Amino acid sequence: MGNMKRIIYSLRPAVVAVALAAGALAGSAIAADEIVLKNGSRILGTVTGVRDGVVTVDTEFAGTLKVKQDQVESLSSGEPIVLKLADGTVVEESSLRVEGETLLLAADSAPVATYPLAELAITNPQPWELGQGYRWTGQVSLALEMQRGNTDTDELDYGIESIWRSLEDRYTLRFDGEDDEANGIKNAENWTALGKYDRFLEGPLYWGVNASAEHDKFSDLDLRYYVGPYIGRQFHERPLLTLSAEVGGVYVDEDYIVAEDQDYLGMNWSVDATSNYISEDSQLYLKHTGIWNLDQTEDIILNLTLGLSFPLLFNIDGAAEILLEYDSGLPPEVESVDQTYRFRVGYSW
Q1: Which of 77, 145, 260, 349 has its CA 20 to 30 A from that of 233?
Q2: 11: pLDDT confidence band, cut at 50, 70 and 90?
Q3: Are 57 and 175 in the same domain?
Q4: pTM of the prediction?
Q5: What percent of the chain has pLDDT above 90?
Q6: Do 212 and 65 share a domain, yes or no?
Q7: Per-residue pLDDT, 42
Q8: Same-domain status, 207 and 243
């Protein structure tokens, strides 16, 4: 009998440890956020955010999962959260609850107690998304090539872009340049500067004013500048595809090194598109601008950039680009089409 008691007493710590572990696991399961999809699948984890029609959840079994918002049947999360709805309403909730594709709101500040889940735009929005200040993004990039041998070549492409955006407006500054030499003789010297101001209207429309200056020594262009208003539309704004287009009028002044100077009224347009179709971390992008001379309608200027950017380390990324520039108004001895293929490295913030 004594031996039996000693065995029981010796097992008590192990039993207590097992019970505590089981309790902890049970508590963890109870405390975990839960998502039930329309197909009946159930996901346990921690909901970290809702944005761009995607619910992000951290799980122990599969890491971070991204679930399409329109596939969620129900959701429960116990952490305090700030919700921004599609109509601009901002609500602070003690938890996030969705039942039957319906968002349930308990806060007194909510206009109504329920909203369709599709009306949830963002959780825990950034200050600028609440109308407080601006979001600042930008990039500095370099492309450098040095070749030594039968021909000594030095090529340098550089660029900087800075964007400040609020709910009401957006400022954009951009500067790009190129300096190339072969055997100590410069064979490329050009730069382009652009400044834009956009004012957002209701829905996807906005208006703006842009001003640009350009120099290209080896295309006989001492200085071209233009300024004018435009109207724009944001057709799509999701990671899979962002697409915007602008059209307006400009006053253009062109000073040439040899050819005759001119100034004219023109029409300008631009198209910008990006996509993370290849992968979430990479980005395909397209930038296109054009100017049409309304005084001499055969004169047109077209610029096109196609590229693929991808992360390298931290905020450093690389990109492969194709640049095409066409100017039908250049002197006959100057090529009207300029093509550039380059790989650049940049720092983004």
Answers
A1: 349
A2: very low
A3: no
A4: 0.81
A5: 65
A6: no
A7: 94
A8: yes
pLDDT digit string (tens) for 67-118? 999 999 999 998 999 999 998 899 999 999 999 999 999 888 788 889 999 9
Bridge partner list, 173: 162, 195
The answer to whether residues 122 and 129 touch, using CB atoms and an 8 Å cutoff, is yes
Helices (H), the chain: 2-31
Locate 333 and state its tokens. Answer: 């001895």
- Based on its alpha-carbon atoms, the radius of gyration of the chain, rounded to whole angstroms, reads 29
What residue type is assigned to position 55 of the chain? V
Range of the domain at 287: 135-348
What does the DSSP assignment read for 162-185? EEEE-SSEEEEEEEEEEEEEETTE
User: CB neighbours (10 Å) of residue 3?
Assistant: 7
In angstroms, the CA 301 to CA 224 distance is 12
The closest of 97, 72, 70, 101 to 83, measured between CA atoms, is 97
Does any domain span residue 9?
no
Whether residues 199 and 307 share a domain: the answer is yes
Please tell me what DSSP assigns to residue 198.
Answer: E
**Whole-number Å distance between alpha carbons of 163 and 266:** 26
- Both 244 and 340 in a single domain? yes
Same domain, 276 and 200: yes
In a domain? residue 1: no
Domain assignment present for residue 3? The answer is no
Residue 24 resides in a domain = no
